[in-house]
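Dear colleague,

Following up on Tuesday's group meeting, I ran the structure prediction for the four-component complex that the binding team flagged. I've pasted the input sequences exactly as they went in, so you can double-check that nothing got truncated or mislabelled along the way. The structure tokens for the whole assembly follow below. Feel free to forward this to whoever is handling the docking comparison.

Inputs:
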Amino acid sequence: MTSNISIIGKRLKEARVHAGLSQERLGILAGIDEFSASARMNQYERGKHEPGMEIMKRIAEKLHRPISYFYEVDDDLAHLIEIYGGLDQQRKEKLLAIAVELHGNQSE
Amino acid sequence: MTSNISIIGKRLKEARVHAGLSQERLGILAGIDEFSASARMNQYERGKHEPGMEIMKRIAEKLHRPISYFYEVDDDLAHLIEIYGGLDQQRKEKLLAIAVELHGNQSE
DNA sequence: TCACTAAGGTTTACTTAGTTG
DNA sequence: CAACTAAGTAAACCTTAGTGA
């Protein structure tokens, strides 16, 4: 069949498979009714329909990824977002500080 | 009036004002019909309606921000995303490399 | 069990037409 | 000109029911 057409679908599948969950199970964990979880999650992953932000937020939580990860089209930036989400608070602050510094000396 | 209720609305307003554009002008630049641009952009910014990813992608371009910026709920991460988007390619790669390294020595 | 889909009912977004500052 | 909104139309999503690997 066809490959993924949407960014959300691509990111969703990557993170879901990484978490070792089925489409239906993930949907149920995110609070979707058990009778429609399979269809809805599949529609999201295949790019047939776009999830609203509320359900996306709950899906993101269950997959341990920042919500922005699922919307980013740039693979490198998506990777950066993913890594940031996995860092402890101290390293998050450090990374942000480094980014600010890199940005600063770019303008000079 | 009332404050913003949605994340998208909050990020949208910040970036739009920073760019010095009116709601209507931004909508037109993003390709929305001139007769509905004002209403639609206002509905997005006030959180009345949620924009689809396609139009959001075009809005993000005009505001010079990665699309993920508009969906991120964490202010620090949103800031990191914003900075990343403004870096040149060399610094983008450097920042990503640093992130990977920070992540690596966290697990040890 | 898991991935996936068509079709129709339901919900939401989009357009129109306007008000207010 | 800029921000904003109600109401109706149009479009998208969600549910149901089901197929096939």
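Residues 1, 22-25, 38-39, 42-43, 45-46, 48, 52 of chain B lie near DNA strand D (CB under 10 Å from a C1').

Cheers,
M.
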